[in-house]
Design goal:
There is one protein chain. The chain is mainly alpha-helical. The chain has one domain. It is built from ten helices and two strands, in the order H-H-H-H-H-H-H-H-E-E-H-H. The chain has a two-stranded antiparallel sheet with strand order 1-2. The longest helix has 29 residues.
Length: 271
């Protein structure tokens, strides 16, 4: 599957859009990338079931690079709670491996598409209503944070997301200041992505029907182009956030997410 100009253009536009939205709205790109990568792969002859799995895995792989860029900026502002990162990360590693090496490999792509559609619908509703949990307690102890990290890593691995829609509300509920919760979530995106990607590579190593330039379930052309484009566009989105009506834009974007969720549900139910 050669990296021809049309394919490069499609992936670059997707990377530019996801990078800008990540900077502007503080969201991961997985919810946008997964539907479009699955469409591109399906149109290029990849079986629908496999296209969904590869889209989820490739989306997660891009987070390795975008999280590095994001966490550097947050760390310079002193916003990352590294004490929380250290306690959640072990559970994240365990949960991610269970998801990407075990459940992800065993589930059919159609089931993952349905689960993805439901997850995106939930996330879009959160964004549309802009609901913030009332802080009611403190972060749990080591065992509680290990359990929470395991759940975050496991769920992220099934949908190809960095976990922000779970970890940020969880930390805010536990009285972590919202700017610290967002920054800490960005730092957690790296172990989530890295561990899941290792699992995707091993679980997809001997799968039949993979397109050329695949590394397990990871589609390398999409990873390369999207990661480069989104890495350079995220700062532009962050700058735009200070001059644009972010609240209104979130509601518009949530409406778009409902359409993407409906597509993935349709793909899963008819797959």
């Amino acid at each position: 599957m050669p990296l021809e100009p049309v394919l490069i253009a499609q992936l670059a536009v997707l990377g530019i859009a996801t990078g800008f939205l990540a900077g502007l709205l503080g969201i991961g790109g997985g919810m946008v990338m997964v539907p479009f990568i699955s469409i591109i792969l399906s149109n290029r002859g990849v079986a629908s079931d496999l296209a969904v799995k590869m889209a989820i895995a490739t989306s997660m792989a891009t987070i390795i690079f975008t999280s590095i860029s994001s966490v550097r900026a947050h760390h310079k502002r002193g916003a990352v709670r590294w004490d929380i990162v250290k306690r959640l990360a072990p559970g994240i590693v365990v949960g991610s491996f269970i998801g990407s090496l075990g459940v992800f490999a065993l589930l059919k792509g159609s089931y993952l598409a349905i689960f993805f559609g439901l997850f995106v619908s939930f996330s879009a509703t959160q964004m549309f209503l802009d609901k913030k949990p009332k802080p009611t307690r403190q972060m749990p102890g080591t065992a509680g944070q290990f359990a929470a990290g395991s759940f975050i890593g496991f769920l992220s691995g099934l949908v190809g997301a960095g976990g922000g829609f779970i970890s940020v509300p969880f930390m805010a509920w536990c009285n972590v200041a919202i700017h610290s919760a967002v920054a800490t979530s960005a730092a957690l995106g790296f172990p989530i992505a890295l561990t899941n990607v290792i699992g995707y590579v091993f679980s997809g190593w001997n799968v039949q029907g993979l397109p050329a330039a695949s590394f397990g379930y990871i589609w390398l052309p999409a990873l390369l182009v999207i990661a480069l484009a989104s890495f350079f566009m995220a700062p532009a989105g962050a700058r735009a956030a200070h001059s644009l009506p972010v609240g209104k834009l979130k509601r518009i974007f949530a409406s778009i997410l409902y359409v993407l969720a409906a597509y993935m549900l349709y793909k899963g139910l008819t797959g």
